[in-house]
């Protein structure tokens, strides 16, 4: 299975091959700021399954609650966030679901960091949710 995605202006494009992992709707304050919305959505993929097909992202790094560093890939022109990868590197990274041409449906999301969610934002009863980061 191949999925393509990219930034809003089209300067950076990528493809992901292989089977994706879990889809997360993260309600932490960092993801809310990054997405300028109620939550951020990230799809786990194998690091080796991501390939740039056009352009090159820039990176910004920040510490995480787990003590790692998160490298955030974004378009140098339009600023669209594309994916996140851990430092030190892991076998997987998180593609920003909205950057995919055909995003994974929201009803498949696992909700995390729900203790930080916006007041009044309902969580679906039929999906797993965690107050923090799941194991």
Q: Major beta sheet, specifics?
A: 7 strands, mixed
Strand content: 35-45%
Poorly predicted spans: none
Distance between the termini: 27 Å
Spell out the key features of this protein:
3-stranded antiparallel sheet, mainly beta, 7-stranded mixed sheet, 135 residues
Description of the structure:
With 135 residues, this protein is mostly beta strands. 5% of the residues lie in helices and 39% in strands. The protein has 1 helix and 10 strands; from the N terminus they run E-E-E-H-E-E-E-E-E-E-E. The strands form 2 sheets. Strands 6-7-8-9-4-3-10 form a 7-stranded mixed sheet. Strands 1-2-5 form a 3-stranded antiparallel sheet, with no helix packed on it. Strand 6 and strand 7 form a beta hairpin. The mean pLDDT is 93.
How does the SSE layout of this entry go?
Layout lengths: L1 E5 L6 E5 L5 E4 L2 H7 L4 E7 L3 E5 L3 E6 L5 E6 L6 E7 L4 E5 L13 E3 L23
Parallel strand pairs: 3-10
Antiparallel strand pairs: 1-2, 2-5, 3-4, 4-9, 6-7, 7-8, 8-9
Summarize this structure briefly.
This protein is mainly beta and 135 residues long. The protein has one helix at residues 29-35, and strands at residues 2-6, 13-17, 23-26, 40-46, 50-54, 58-63, 69-74, 81-87, 92-96, 110-112.
